[in-house]
Amino acid sequence: MNPKLAQKIAFIILLLATILVIVPVGMIVVIIVVKGAPAINWEFLLAMPSKGMRAGGIFPAIVGTIYLVAATILFAIPVGVFSAIYLVEYARENLLTRMVKLAIINLAGVPSIVYGLFGLGLFVIFLGFGPSIIAGALTLAIMILPIIITTSKEALDSVPRSYREASLALGASKWQTIRHVVLPSALPGILTGIILGISRAAGETAPILFTVAAFYLPRLPRTMFDQVMVLPYHLFVVSTQIPNIKTEYTYATALVLVGIVLIANLAAIILRSKYRKKI
């Protein structure tokens, strides 16, 4: 076959595959925006729910989601990044480290409902946290750790060995080399893993169902040990458990959730692009 013809065929196949991915996602976003935007106003965003969630707003669910995602990031990022640094820079290649790496890969494919049951048994019951923000955040942090560790490890592995050798040759210690040379070079890749983790944590329903989510709680949390309403579970409730609710209310809730995820991802992407420019 003519190489140019083969290249054109491959290009067309790749373009069609891309379109098959983009078009359904775009249609979903358009439907959510068209059906949900008319219901969004200041009362919907800032008021407490009332009349069994058939009226009022979703402010407690918005605040609960922000608290939960922020606490999840706070717990997951240090553990995930430091674990990746240890595996790449300090751990020797042996049977134990190979088993750890295999376990991390396998944990990334565990269904979220399993993490929810684990969080229920460990944090809610055994440690006595009860259904609370801290129990839900720790559960979500464990769930996204494999993503953060894997992407951080790949980002650290992609830093050329010559960078490390040059830094050590100039008299820097191993930790100084990691901190001032390796981490800045790998930071864009690490932020990519954090973006993926934020997206998954913000949209999960099964883990928070057992550990933090409240069916109806029209007040704001006071401490990390309070139960809260959360947007993913609230969306499930208003879609399936509340009869005679307006369709616009459901789509507006979905639109707010998508908006929060997009804003969080956009902030991380902007931060990543700034570090890439510096590098």
Kindly summarize this structure in a few lines:
The chain is mostly helical. It has helices at 3-36, 42-46, 59-90, 95-107, 112-126, 133-157, 161-169, 174-203, 206-211, 231-240, 247-278, and strands spanning 49-50, 55-56. It is 76% helix and 1% strand.
How would you describe this protein?
The chain is mostly helical and 279 residues long. It has one domain: MetI-like (MetI-like fold). The protein contains 11 helices and 2 strands; from the N terminus they run ααββααααααααα. It has a two-stranded antiparallel sheet. β1 and β2 form a beta hairpin. It starts with a helix and ends with a helix.
Span from first to last CA?
42 Å
Counting structural domains, the number is 1
CATH class: Mainly Alpha
Measured as a percent range, the helix fraction is: over 70%
> How are the strands ordered across the major sheet?
1-2
Unreliable stretches covering 5 or more consecutive residues: none
- By secondary-structure content and strand pairing, the structural class works out as mainly alpha
Strand fraction equals under 5%
Please write out the topology.
Blueprint: H1 3-36, H2 42-46, E1 49-50, E2 55-56, H3 59-90, H4 95-107, H5 112-126, H6 133-157, H7 161-169, H8 174-203, H9 206-211, H10 231-240, H11 247-278
Antiparallel strand pairs: 1-2
Which tags fit this structure?
MetI-like fold; single chain; globular; 279 residues
